[in-house]
Amino acid sequence: GPSYLAKHFLGHREQGAHWALQTWISGGVEWQFHHHRLQASIGLLHYCNAGLATPNQGYNIPLVIGVGYQFG
Q1: Fewest 10 Å CB contacts: which of 14, 45, 47, 70?
Q2: Residue 18 Cα distances to 12, 27, 38, 51, angstroms
Q3: How far is CA 53 from CA 11, 14, 34, in A?
Q4: In angstroms, rounded to a whole number, what is the distance separating the alpha carbons of residues 67 and 53?
Q5: Using one digit for the tens of pLDDT, what is the confidence trace for 12-70?
């Protein structure tokens, strides 16, 4: 979905605008214990401006790890 990047650069890669599209691909597991849930996930995050601005040197964040705990 749409996202706002604070800077045009990430390392030496450049986006032509602050607005970009974010794509998140991940997989994970969830365990339930009575009224509590524990979640773990691993994924890939990609930002690009879909050619709407120049340059369009998309950013890939190859390893995103998520952990969640829900109670109640």
Answers
A1: 70
A2: 16, 28, 35, 13
A3: 19, 11, 50
A4: 34
A5: 888 888 899 999 999 999 999 989 999 999 999 999 988 888 998 888 999 999 999 99
Query: What is the reported pTM?
Result: 0.72
pLDDT at 72: 76
Rounded CA-CA distance 24/12 in Å is: 22
Place of tokens 């705990």: 69
Task: Give the three-state DSSP class for 56.
Answer: strand
Distant-in-sequence, close-in-space partners of 64: CB < 8 Å, separation ≥ 6:
24, 26, 42, 43, 44, 45
Query: What is the distance between the alpha carbons of residues 69 and 32, in angstroms, rounded to a whole number?
Result: 10
